[in-house]
Each structure stands twice: as C-alpha cells, then as structure tokens.
TrEMBL record:
Superkingdom classification of source: Eukaryota
Compositional bias of kind Basic and acidic residues: 711-726
Chain ranges passing through the membrane: none
PH domain boundaries: 50-174
Protein name in the entry: NIBL1 protein
Species whose genome carries this gene: Nyctibius grandis (Great potoo)
Chain intervals for the UniProt region annotation (Disordered): 644-746
Family: Belongs to the Niban family.
Signal peptide: none
C-alpha cells in the first residue's frame, strides 16, 4: 500500500517532468549550446570482455553460520560474482551469489559494522560481554553494508589483500551507484528532476545519499526511506530472543521487504515509462511545430516570476550564500585538483616505465604487450586508488550543516568518475596517436622518441580538458549545494504564490512548461553570476592549475578527431599480425583482453629501477615533464642501475581470467544523478577576459620498484596470466546484460 502511494505521486511528477525534459532536449538539438571542444579523444566502443579482478576470499554464510572459501570474479561491468570455488567457475557452473553493490558501504572494521547495526534498531544493543552479531576469524574483514538490503561478510588473511579487495569493492560501488545512463537525454533528467520534486514536496531539500543505482533501485530507496521507520516501530517490539538474534532477524526482515518493494516498483515504473514513450511521438511533433510559441510563452512566464521572486532571491543570496561561496569552492578545489594531478602523474609514470622497458627488452616486439595493459589503466582499481583517495580529504565542516548537505559522498564519487574518464581519454588518445605513427617508425630509437613526443602532446591536451572538466564539476557542485538551500529559504514567502502564474501558460503548452521548474530556473539565475565569478577568479590562482575561460585551444590537432571515428585499435590483433580491416565486424570489439588488469604491485617491472634516474632529469616545475634527449640518454641512465638476469624478473600475477561477452551483471554506464545539475544546459556561461596562462605542470614523484618475492597462484589462490594457446576459463553464467539476473541478490 505504501509503495503504491509513493509511486503514484512519483509517477505524476515523472510524467510532468518528461514533457519538460523532452522540450529541453529538442530545443538543445535545434539551437545547440555546446561548450569548448575536448582535446582528448573519447572511447566510443567501451573496453569489454575483461575481468577487473578475481581471487579467493572467505565469505560468512548466514544459513549455517560458517565461513567458507569463495572464488570471486569482478567482470568489466563491476558486478560481484561469487562461485563455490575456482573449479566451479572453470566448469561453467552457476554462481552462488550475484551482487549489485549500488548503495553499499565498504567497511574494514567489525566495530564500524556493529555501530551501524546497533543504530539501525534503536533500543536493541547487546550487553557487554555477550558475543556480537558477527565474529571474524581474521583481523582483516571486508563488510558490505546497506541500510535496507542484506549484508555481505568477507575476510582475507593479510592487510595487503584487504587493501586490494577494498579498492576493488569501492570501484564496484562507485560504478554501480551511477546506474542512470547519461546517454538518455530525456528519461534521465526527467527521472532525477522527478525524484527531486517529489522529495521537495515532502520538505526534504539538500543532497540525498541514496540516489544511487538504476532507476528501480533509486525508487525502492525512496519508498524504503518512508516505509522503514513505520515498519521498525511496528515490528521491533515483537522481535524475540537475545539482542543479537533480534538484530539478525531485523536485517532479514528489512531485506525481504526491500525485495518486495523492488518488484512492485519495477512493475509500476516500467508501466509509466511505456506510457510516456507511447505519447512521445505526438509530443515531439507538437514541440517541433510550435517551438517558437513555446519559447515565447516560457519567456513571458519567466519574466513575470522573475519580477516577483528575484528581489527576494537576491537578498537571500547576498546574506546567506555569497559570503560562503569562496569557502565551499576552496574546500572542493583542493582535493579535486590534487586528484586530477595524481591522474596526470600516474599516466606519465606508466607511459615512461613502458618506454624504458621497450628500450631495454627488445623494442617493438614488446610494445603490443605493454599497450594491451596500458589500455586498461583507468579500470585498474589499485593503480587508480592513489587518485581516488585524494577526494577523501574533502571536508565541508560547518558548511555542511548550514547548507543541509547530508554527506560529501555525492561529490567525492562524481569527481572520482571524472578522474577515471579523463584517464581513459588520455590513454585512448595516446594509443590512437601511437598506432598512427607505427608505420612510419624505423627501429627502436624512433619508437622511443615517438612515444615521448606523443606523451607530451597528450599531457598538454589532458591539462586543458581536466581544467574544463573540473570547472564544470565545481559549478555543478556549488549549484547542488546552494540551490536547495535557497529554495528552502524562499519557500515560505514564494512557493504559495506560484499557483497564480499557472494562468499565464497556454493549455496546449502546459505539458512543456511548468511553473515550478521556471521558478527554480529564476532562483538558479540569482546565484549563477556569483558562482561563475568565483570559479573565474579561482582560475587565476595558479595553484589549482586551471585555464581561464578565455583559453580555448583551436585546431591544435585538426585531424585527431577524425582518427577517433575509425576502427578502435586492437593491440591483440596487432600481435597476431592480422590487419584490423580484415577482421569480421564482430571481432573488432575487444573479444579477449588480458586476463586481469591487476598485477602484484610490490614487484617492479624488469627495468623499472631506472625510473628514479630518468625522473631526476625532468625540468623544473612550471614546464611539462619531458624525457632525456634521445634513446642514448635513457640507456645511459638505465646503465647506472644493476639489472638482474631473466630469472630475477618478477612473475606477474593477473588475478583473473578471460570472460567472453555477456558476463557479469547489468552494465551501468556512469551517470550524473546530480540534483539540479541538468538546468545548467539552459544557462549561458560567459567567457572571461582574454588571458593565456600556462598551467603549472605537476612533477611526478620519483619511484623505483624494489625486487621482492611474489607469491605463486597456489599461495594466493589467484590466477596467473594465460599465455597464447592455453585454455581460457569460461564466462560467469547466470548473468545477463539486461540486468534481470542481478536482482537475485542485492
């Protein structure tokens, strides 16, 4: 009953927002309002059919209260697939558990978990001396906690394993949380705006932590947010047994209710989606026919609302928002800029290490092997962790309470997804440019120089694009923080008067123009000027390495974007010697990647010891990183470091296996469920006065690998890289790209 009531109100909001979003989409298509062109190429065909990570860990089985060894596979779409053991995976037996980790938190302490469990059922706390709800056999637990769904308990044997699995699980959560596809230009903004309008109708402003997962998961969270307190009040007094048993029972009840809510929500949401899609052709025809009249009507409405609202909004902005914008921006900029600088450094180091290994290991023959691994760099949870963890420094302190920001996790995860995308764009641009040059190169010396030259070109493009992405992120974050605060402040004096403006909208256009949305746009305009000015002034401060708005790189590589339209580079096929043009269409995708993108990081690459010497020859800060002139200088630098024989080269663990197409759980493309962010599409961004500073280059810190023993696959239970001709393990069965299978376990 409660689910039906909540979804009834939400679906009404969604149908209203669908017409508005459709109008905005068609208007944008006709008028166009693009920002600066990206310098880096964007991968149009995503890397698929590879395993992010696989290995053994212990799972607590609640049914028999035992810990069991499990073989866990994380496919390219970031589902957690648990098998009885590795043999079951290789024999294509169905997995034991499929986990979609959207909405989960990763805990590495039993005490953290017990604190959350105790707070979920007030008044039920085990007495001191009694055994807690969970006991871990090792000191290295990994617990997946969800406020509504069932919990998952894992543990490993060492702290190093715990850190790796934690990075992998966090990557899964980060990816699954962004389950609303950005490719949808109508449904996605209509959905996020409908959620926001619904919550504001309940006097709930500000950010919402549970806006995560796909649309059905988000709506289930919306229902549970209202249903769970009532359920707890009704059921809690009736729970019997010791405190631990009552807590365990409550978790099971909550999970069962969540599944029921999910099924009902999916059915009702699919029905309203189908209805909107059925009406879409007629609505779109009306929009295209009457576009000018609709725009005129909307502008007339906006002018009337502006005259009524703007004086009050400007006073509110001046007194309650303007004094804090610079503080919020500084808090956002410092960790974000450090994270993007770390992305630049990791990319520089990986390419430089690859270059040195090619020089010392025989030249072009090793290029394909290293490029295959480099292409997965953005999806390497452990190597990217140093970038992601910079955002952990984000603290809004007192500003968080003032502006009703429940948590900073929304901003952290969005920035981290931008980092991953920028890394992948840089890698893809690098491999595209290098692939173009391969036919022109003569020997090892030319290859080394070409790699270094292309690296410097890509770094310049990265500096420009990362500046553009960060400035957009700062503007959206400031709007997401300040707009709900302003709406809440203005509601008592303005919201009740909005009904009188409804008569200004022609009935034929009522599906495309809403008073509430127009009112929010006016409020946004009242603060947008201050936000734009703050970001513009921040670009002048060189410490954040931002370009000014007037800095636009025009046609620095006029043919580069044409390269991006061609067939994606297939390094695996390069190795086989078969031209990409002769491949069947279905083989142009990356059918089989390296078994895993994770390697044992304690072992150095064979010639990585020379990295420190090479990096010492970098120019001073302020100039982009560059290598010594020519191959001879690199060889001279490397010759100073003792190199072991081939037997000392570290065995590289890949901890995974090939998974053919279709493996894993529902693919969730990164999205931006940022409330209010989509209104930016209608706001013109003014350019600053011309200026052209050179961004400060981040100088990577020297690092040299140290040789140490790497455990074999028998010691770790993890999988060693397959060589050509060896049998490749099968895909995880029981999983679907459509996502129907994922919901068997949350």
């Amino acid at each position: 009953e409660r689910t039906g009531k909540v979804l009834g109100e939400f679906c009404r909001c969604y149908q209203e927002q669908f017409g508005v979003a459709l109008f905005s989409s068609v208007r944008y298509e006709i008028e166009g309002n693009g920002g600066p062109q990206a310098q880096l190429l964007h991968r149009k065909v995503p890397l698929e059919d590879h395993v992010i990570y696989s290995g053994n860990l212990f799972q607590y089985i609640e049914e028999n209260k035992k810990w069991r060894n499990r073989f866990c596979v994380v496919p390219h779409n970031y589902g957690l697939v648990l098998y009885e053991n590795k043999l079951a995976y290789e024999r294509e037996l169905p997995p034991r558990v499929l986990v979609n980790s959207a909405g989960y938190k990763i805990l590495t302490s039993v005490d953290q978990y017990l604190e959350l469990v105790n707070s979920s059922l007030p008044g039920v706390t085990p007495k001191s001396g009694h055994s807690p709800i969970l006991k871990c056999p090792t000191d290295f637990p990994l617990i997946l906690w969800h406020p509504y769904a069932r919990h998952y308990y894992f543990c490993v044997m060492t702290g190093k394993e715990q850190e790796k699995w934690r990075a992998v699980f966090q990557d899964c959560v980060r990816h699954c949380n962004n389950g609303i596809s950005e490719d949808s230009k109508v449904e996605a903004p209509a959905f996020t705006d409908a959620v926001r309008m619904y919550r504001q109708s309940k006097e709930q402003y500000g950010t919402w932590d549970m806006l995560c997962g796909n649309e059905t998961q988000v709506l289930s969270n919306l229902v549970m947010e209202e249903l769970l307190p009532e359920l707890r009040t009704t059921i809690s007094p009736r729970l019997k047994g010791k405190a631990q048993e009552r807590q365990r029972t409550w978790i099971q009840i909550s999970d069962a209710v969540y599944r029921m809510v999910y099924e009902q929500t999916k059915a009702q949401y699919d029905a309203v989606m189908a209805k909107c899609e059925q009406e879409r052709p007629q609505m779109e025809s009306t929009i295209r026919t009457d576009m000018d009249q609709i725009i005129t009507s909307k502008e007339h409405l906006a002018s009337k609302i502006r005259a009524f609202v703007l004086p009050k909004a400007e006073i509110c902005v001046r007194n309650h928002v303007q004094p804090y914008i610079s503080s919020i921006l500084e808090a956002l900029m410092t960790p974000t800029s450090q994270g993007f600088a770390e992305v630049r450094e990791v990319f520089f180091k990986e390419v430089t290490d690859m270059n040195m290994n090619i020089v010392n290991e025989g030249g072009p023959e090793k290029l394909v092997e290293y490029m295959e691994k480099l292409s997965h760099l953005a999806f390497h949870p452990v190597k990217m962790q140093s970038c992601y963890e910079k955002m952990d420094q984000l603290k809004l302190e007192g500003l968080q309470q003032r502006f009703d920001v429940s948590s900073t996790s929304v901003f952290k995860q969005r920035a981290q997804i931008h980092m991953r995308q920028q890394m992948d764009d840089a890698v893809y641009t690098f491999e595209t440019l290098l692939h173009q040059e391969l036919g022109k190169l003569q020997g090892k010396d030319d290859l080394c120089k070409s790699i270094q030259r292309i690296l410097e070109r890509v770094l310049k493009k990265y500096d420009y694009d990362s500046s553009t992405v960060r400035k957009k992120f700062f503007r959206e974050a400031l709007l997401q923080i300040t707009i709900p605060f302003l709406l809440k402040k203005l509601a008592p004096t303005c919201k009740g008067e909005l009904a009188k403006f409804q008569e200004l909208i022609f009935e034929d256009f009522a599906s495309f123009i809403l008073v509430e949305n127009t009112y929010e746009e006016v409020v946004l305009q009242s603060v947008m000027k201050d936000i734009m000015q703050a970001v513009k002034e921040a670009a002048v401060q060189r410490k954040h390495n931002l370009y000014r708005d007037s800095m636009v790189l025009h046609n620095s590589d006029p043919n580069l974007h044409l390269l991006g339209e061609g067939v994606p580079v297939e390094w695996g096929e390069e190795q086989s010697g078969q031209p990409a043009a002769e491949l069947p269409a279905d083989r142009r995708r990356r059918a089989k990647q390296v078994v895993s993108v994770i390697q044992d990081d304690e072992g150095a690459l064979p010639f990585e010891a020379g990295a420190e010497v090479l990096l010492q020859q970098e120019p001073a800060p302020g100039a982009p990183p560059s290598s010594p002139d020519g191959v001879g200088a690199i060889r001279a630098a490397l010759a100073k470091e003792p190199l072991g024989d081939g037997g000392e080269a570290e065995e590289r663990l890949t901890n995974g296996a090939d998974v053919p197409s279709g493996a894993g759980v529902q693919h969730a493309a990164p999205a931006s469920p940022v409330s209010g962010a989509n209104v930016l599409s209608e706001v013109q961004v003014p350019h600053a006065t011309p200026a052209s500073p050179t961004p400060r280059a981040e100088t990577p810190s020297p690092s040299a690998g140290t040789a140490c023993h790497q455990p074999s696959d028998k010691e770790t239970g993890e999988e060693v890289a397959l060589r050509g001709g060896e049998h490749s393990p099968p895909q995880p069965r029981g999983t679907t790209e459509s996502g129907e299978g994922v919901q068997t376990e949350f």
